[in-house]
Queue: 2 jobs
Job 1
Amino acid sequence: MLKRTFLTASLATPFLNLKAQTIFNGGDASDLETSRSQGFWERPRWVWLKRPATGEVIKKVYWQDGQLIEQAYSDISWLLRDVRFERMMALKSPIIRTALNNGVIDSHQVTPWIAMDAILLDILYAYSAWLDFNKVQSPILITSGFRHLLTNALTEGAARNSEHTKGGAADIVIPNVSPMKSAAFGRFLAGGGVGLYASRNFVHVDKGRVRTWSL
Ligand SMILES: [Zn+2]
């Protein structure tokens, strides 16, 4: 079964509580409805995501009544695929051919997508719910999700064993919400790593060790 006890445990305290609200508004939380925070992880978990690179949008419940909904889980994982690798495949890139010939990758690794880590989906659910709670009518923009070993190697500044290569990370942009505020929510959530890339206007979230950085 999936490693979902972690997030549940780390958020045993009522979710969308005073602190989450304060992060958003930067102050007064007098209109907070604490009742809404009850049973956050027991409720249906959903995400609202958009891939600017392809124009795809998804708004789906992927977990309900204690289990993953396979089709939704696949659909969301697909949206989070490596679109750059997908293009390389379509163009029959010699980089892929060479990597195969040299044994750098196996034939089953010639795919632009994998099943994403369910913890990452839970992190994106928390973000989606946080935005919904704060009446931000926008999907989360995904600028990077799964990253193939080969495209990761071509990505400037990417760690060799980046969580992106394991399906455990996403780079997100939230329209009308500053990356500072978005990163602050990620740190509050403590679901894994949170990287603030303020100058490039995005936040990296992953399901790895809880840690924060900014560049
Ligand atoms: Zn990233």
Note: Helices lie at 5-10, 18-25, 70-79, 83-90, 94-101, 118-133, 149-154, 179-189.
Job 2
Amino acid sequence: MKLILTLLLLALVPAFSAPKAASKLTPEAAFTKTVQPFLANNCVGCHNPKNKTANLDLQQFTSIESVRSNLKVWRKVAWKLEQGEMPPAKFPQPKAITKKAVLKWVNAELADSQIALK
Ligand code: HEC
């Protein structure tokens, strides 16, 4: 029985460590490598501490901790990205694959938190 269980667990491990480029990074590393540059390139031109377009400063997010302590904002970010509403249509758009990676990261953060359930 123990052996079967061990084999079963071993069989499951690869499923969790599937070789997706972004998933090799820790959430912290992915924030620095993918999410932060994405914001810098596509969002903070409007959502910075000076302009605060829509009363939103996305430049304030400099660490994963800052994201986790303000997930309400990130629910909106996920929503806007999912709807394809940000950046606004008239402005340069990020690569679909980058946007997808960022959205996945944000959704994972939200799923890991209580707030996603509210
Ligand atoms: C060219 C300026 C501009 C850029 C670039 C831009 N936004 Fe916006 N954003 C706006 C404006 C204007 C609004 C208010 C209108 C609206 O909600 O559609 C807004 C609203 C928002 C809101 C809703 C805020 C709220 O509290 O209702 C979020 C979230 C958001 N943007 C996220 C982003 C993200 C993420 C990016 C980068 C991928 C981005 N924006 C890029 C101009 C911009």
Note: The chain has a mean pLDDT of 87.
